[in-house]
Amino acid sequence: MNSVDTFRNLQSEATEWRRYLHQIPELDYRLENTARFVAEKLGSFGINHIETGIAETGIVALIHGEGGDGPTIGLRADMDALPILEASGKPWASRTPGKMHACGHDGHTAMLLGAAKYLAGTRNFKGSVALIFQPAEEGALGGLKMVQEGIMDRFGISQVFGMHNDPDMAIGKLAICHGAMLAALDDFDLIVKGRCGHAATPHQNVDPIVIAAQIIIGLQTLVSRKTDPLDSLVISVTKLIAGQAYNIIPEHAEIAGTVRTLVPGLRDCAERNILACAQGIARAFGGDVEFTYRRHDPVTFNHPDQTDLAIRAASNLVGAASVDGKLKPSMGSEDFAYMLEARPGSYIGLGNGPSASLHNPAYDFDDEALPYGIGYWVNLVETALAI
Fold it and tell me: Which residue of 176, 212, 292, 349 has the fewest C-beta atoms within 10 A of its own C-beta?
């Protein structure tokens, strides 16, 4: 297997790609320039099977090994940026105000391109590699859309793997765990219905703001008193909108928030209990609620054999001491989870050093991490598809 030194000669070129992509951030499915750049690079590596326009601007490219027949494994990188005004101050900062690569997807794309160039040049494996460049990871469910458009069956993918940079981890380190690694993501809206009137006569009205305040406090008991302490549940109220004047009790108040779970059954429990709690409190005060609950990403679940494979590939790259195979799960979420529901696979964290946090205006992907990501992908392929 290859150590990271094997891939340092790709760092300079991958840095150029990454910094160019950082300057042209695009959102959701509207990744025309990003996708065009990726497709052109793949073609320049001598990859002949490149399919574009999947999930609007997604790409899947196939590299066939020279070691004979074998399975096809998928490697996924996300490509989209975030609607954030960049404050990194870097020479390669975003050229589009209000859009930036604040989550490192430019780095993810560059690392998969670097692996593509290496693998297309060596082809030292059997079977095939499907390079999956995904749009719309940031809340628009691009991973689900690619699965729904049939990429797993269409390209014969039997296993699928993902990777994400981690600013809390040193460069040269990788981390993963078996089972649930990232949480399921849901969100909810509550409209608290009261009765409008003059603020000087509250006894003649039903105040939805007071009801909303009681509901917000009440929802916290669902975590502390309705959930097994050994399970993980997060209910965070992130929006509260009510009223327009100082002297008017409004007709309604709006509450919205997010729910994160690691145990599948907790999604049903949270949905049921949020409504029961809010409805009970509102009716006790003479009001009522309208409730909407939406399910988004499922749990990002690492499958046993593929997680073991990822640990071996990473350990061969940087040494076993630099690979944490028992990473504590996070309550963040990832739409790569849909690909892991469609096929067995795993998702690993890659150290980005002491940078600003993800989704922060000052964040920037550290280019020193590029050879580690490229090397991980190559070692993974040559381990999974060994001749």
Answer: 292
